[in-house]
Amino acid sequence: MIIGVPREIKNNEYRVSITPGGVQALTAAGHRILIEKDAGLGSGFPNAAYEAEGAEIIASPAEVWKRSEMIVKVKEPLESECNYFREGLILFTYLHLASSPRLIQALLESKVTAYAYETIQLSDGSLPLLMPMSQIAGRMSVQIGARLLEKSSGGPGVLLGGVPGVPPAHVVIIGGGVVGTCAAEMAVGLRAKVSILDNNPLRLKQLDEQFSGRVTTIMSNEYNIRQYVSEASLLIGAVLLPGAKAPKLVTEDMVRHMQPDAVIVDVAIDQGGCIATMDRMTTHDQPTFRKYDVIHYAVANIPGSVPRTSTAALTNATLSYISKLADNDGGAFQEFDRSLYGGLNIHNGKIINQTINR
Questions:
Q1: What separation in angstroms does the CA of 103 have from each of 30, 80, 118, 145, 147?
Q2: In what order do the strands lie in the sheet with 2-5?
C-alpha cells in the first residue's frame, strides 16, 4: 500500500504521525511511504532520517494526498485539507468528529473511509491509541496549570505545592480516567492538595488504593462538583465518553463562583469540553481567555507542544494498526479485527460509528 504522511498544519502542531523507525517497519513489509518535506522537523526528525529508511520525500501536500492510498495523520484535517478528500481514500488519524459537524459532512460527501484513533477500543474497554496522548495531556495539564497560577501569567501568585507553613494549591480533577489519573500523579508529585471526582465507585476505590490516601476521592454529582469547583485553585476537566461529546458537568454558575484568578484546564475541549464556559477552542499562540475573572485554557492539541515525546509515543501505539490496515487494503470494515472496526467512523458515505452523533 502507498501510505502518505502530510505535515501537520494545526496551530503550533509539531508532531508527525510516524517516526523513521515506524517507516522502516512498514517499508520492510513492502509498503511505500510518502513523507511531505519537513513533516518531521518539529519532532526532531529530518528528511534524511526518513529517506534512510526507504521513504520518499514529497515537496507538496497536494501530491502526498493525491498519490497515497492511505493518509496517516495526527490531528483532524483542517478545512484546506478537506479539498484533498476523494472516494476510496483511507484516512487514519485523531478525528474527534462529535465536535466537528463540518468535517463529518466533508467525509460523507467525499466517501472517504475514515478511521479515528480515539474510537479504537479493546475488549476491556481501554482505548489504546488515545491512551499515550491522554497520559501526556494529563501530565501537562498540571504543568500548564502551575505556570498559569503564577502572577506573571495572570494568576493569583500561588505555588502549586506550597512550602512549609503555607498551604498548597487545591487541584480539583473532574474524571478519574487516564487523563485524570496522570494529572493526579503530577499534582501529588508537586505536593499539591488533590481531589478527584468520578461517578464510578469502583474507580474511586482503585484511585484511593493507588494513591494511598494522598488524593481525596469524591463521588461525582452536581452537589459535590459545585462544592469542589468553588474551592479549586486549578480545575482540570478530564471527562471522556469515547467518540462522543463530553458532558457539560461544570456549569457557568459554578465557574462564576470560583476564586478570582483560578485556572481551568479543560483537556476534554477536543470533544466539546466538560466546562460550560469553555465556549471556544484556543491555540498555543493564544492559549487562554478570561471569563468571570477565571483563567480558561482550551488548547485542543496539548501534546503538540512536546512533539518529540508525543510522536514517539504515538507511533508506538499506532504502528501495529497502520500495518493491519495496510496489509489488508484498509478493509477493517470487513471486521477482520474487532478493535480496529470500532475505529471505523465513516465508510462509503455512511456513518458507521454512531457515537459521533451523540
A1: 32, 11, 16, 31, 34
A2: 56-58, 32-36, 2-5, 70-72, 90-93, 113-116, 344-347, 350-351
Q: Measured between alpha carbons, how far is 103 from 96 in angstroms, rounded to an integer?
A: 9
SS3 (DSSP) at 300: coil
Number of CB atoms found within 10 A of residue 201's CB:
10
- In the chain, which residues have pLDDT < 70? 243, 330-336, 357-358
Contact call for residues 141 and 306 (beta carbons, < 8 A):
no
Annotate 209-229 with DSSP letters as a single string: HHTTTSSEEEE--HHHHHHHH
Could you tell me the domains of the chain? 2-120+307-357 (3.40.50.720), 131-304 (3.40.50.720)
Q: List phi, psi (to 5°) of 264.
A: -120, 130
> How does pLDDT run across 40-99, given as a tens digit for each residue?
999 999 999 999 999 999 999 999 999 999 999 999 999 999 999 999 999 999 998 887
C-alpha–C-alpha distance, residues 284 and 270, integer Å = 14
Name which of 356, 341, 181, 154 is nearest 271 in CA terms.
356
Q: Nearest 5°: CA angle at 140, between 288 and 7?
A: 80
Going 140 to 120 to 197 to 289, the CA torsion angle's sign is positive
pLDDT value of residue 61: 97
The pairing of beta strand 344-347 with beta strand 350-351: antiparallel
Please, which contacts does 61-65 make with residues 24 or more away whose CB atoms are closer than 8 Å?
Answer: 61/6, 61/7, 61/9, 61/36, 63/34, 64/4, 64/5, 64/6, 64/34, 64/35, 64/36, 65/4, 65/6, 65/89
Show which residues are catalytic: 96, 270
Q: Is the pTM of this model over 0.70?
A: yes
Three-class SS state of 185: helix
Grid coordinates representing 136? 501526556
